[in-house]
Fold this protein.
Amino acid sequence: MATSAAVDIEAAKKAAAERAVQDHFDPNAKYVGIGSGTTIIYVVDAIKEKSTNPHIQFVPTGYQSRQVIVAAGLTPIAFDSLPSGEVLEVAFDGADEVDDELNCIKGGGACLFQEKLVAEKAKKFVCVADYRKDQSRLLTQWASIPIEVAPIAVHTVQSALVALGSSTPVVRNGILAKSGPLKTDQDFFIIDAPFKPLLTRADVASAADGDLGARTGKWGVEDLAERIKAITGVLEVGIFCGRNGLEAEAVGEHGGQKPVAVYFGMSDGTVKVKAATNA
Ligand SMILES: O=C[C@H](O)[C@H](O)[C@H](O)COP(=O)(O)O
């Protein structure tokens, strides 16, 4: 039987999903991105509730996400079938942890690579989560950064992560009958790499000597994401940072991976919104 805390968490996810859809889903949209995880199921339910438009096509971020779209009776379209030049009106997704600058950790469910592709293709990326994910710094409650890695490179990537200061980067195992490492939708492995809590841009900017990272052994979010991505064998890193879609659009580009808003369902039934100033 589900405990009352577990029931509260599900209610929180649902409340956040309903608010996010109310605020950001346009029933006249052509293309909408749908992320992965447990919270996105409530987003799809809320979209289904609100939309009678059979022409919207939903872009999944992997196998599970596509199943959720199909089960709801909505129409999926593969990311690589999107007509050239088309962008997504909005993409919704879950998050494992979100800081005060809307940087996110994602990949707790092993789906970060396609999630990042879809987020970057959207005018607006919107995240939905429960109150446990709302922290001022990344790696406060969430223990490690998920990193998608080519199986052949797993040991060299682990060594490179240790050199960057990760204490014990581990290859994530499958939890089902088949033993051995978990495989992603790309047939890659996931390494979960713990680091000390990450510094926001504001932390880095406010360091008097400009050398906060070296003194504290802590990395800035963007610096660490860049260093990990540069390791040969890394397909993608589960830190979503940099600019958001609206900031990219303002300079005539696409490619923001940070959400414009994150909706957190709280334990008291309310919904807290952390939004970018340009949202
Ligand atoms: O790999 C999984 C994704 O990044 C999920 O969106 C993330 O882990 C949040 O999942 P949930 O909604 O189940 O907390």
Remarks:
- The chain has two domains: 4-135+240-275, 145-239.
- Residues 35-39, 93-96, 106-112, 115 surround ribose-5-phosphate (CB under 6 Å).
